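Course assignment 3, question 2. Fill in each field.
Student: A.L.
Task: Predict the tertiary structure for the chain below.
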Amino acid sequence: MRCLVTGGGGFLGRALAEMLANRGDTVRVLARNKYAELDKLGIESIQGDIRDMDAVSKACMGCDAVFHAAAIPGIWGDESLYRAINVDGTRNMLEAARRRGVAKFVYTSSPSVVFDMKDESGINESTPYPQQFFNPYSKTKAEAEKLALEQNGRDGVLVCAIRPHLLYGPRDNHLIPRLLERARLGKLRIVGDGANKVDLTYVDNAAFAHILACDAMAPGRVAGKAYFISDDAPVVLWDWINALLKQLNIPPATKRLSQKSALRVGSVLETVHSLLRLKGEPRMTRFLAMALSCSHHYDISAAKREFRYAPNVSPAEALRRTVEHFKSRSTQATQPTHAGPARG
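Answer field:
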């Protein structure tokens, strides 16, 4: 199979590209930079932006399948930028896929597209999109998912959406590094009662799910649907975080903030950041307050049933690999340099 992976230099995109190449597929990535690690695997790189229709059209040429993993993450920022990348970029990818005769299109979505700021325990894909979104990422990812699924079958392109929850693993440059930074600074707080259960998804399991869905996709089967994906082992969020911190020799989170207080702080900080046009994300937002204090784990039986998904890396092994990676990074960061004495 000749495959294109967008965001091939990113966390999930790179895992996808490597997994496809290792099983013998011909792989091309569309990314803003070039990556020597992908070159070594014989993966072709095209430098470009998904907002650039010419680059997107070139990247799709000759491909049988597109894995569209590129997106702008985060929970705070200029909504117009989120829309340009997450929605308009997806529209460009779909149009290019149709023009170039691509057969299959797998869109990387997120369970946040249905998060309604309350406990969601064992819900399935029949859960509707919420009436209101509290961050531009969730809002634009939901718009892009709807756009993608609505275009299933158009000009022969089959489309499905994969919703992996809370991706983690080696090379994670978003979720775990931010947790570790706040914990090291003593600023990490247990929000809520600390008993909320969540799903996690090891990055290789998420990549595996994308590939299984693509292989199984056919008219009337998988095509036109969205699927929740996880490690199929919900954890108590704060127990898991503190176990991770312990293995990395970082003091655990012990101080607490009630859900009500976190919501109030988030609302105030959102207002201040908006009025003063401050750079960066607020330390707390209403969405983050609820994400950290609510349960959110999902029924993945549809993925098991319809494309035989099962995690190929166990939670214990996934955590071991993750800890090993971040221990290695910490060791490298503290290694002395040998450049000689500084000169004033």
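Instructor remarks: Residues 332 and 338 are 13 Å apart (CA to CA). Confidence is low (pLDDT under 50) at residues 334-344.
Grade: pending
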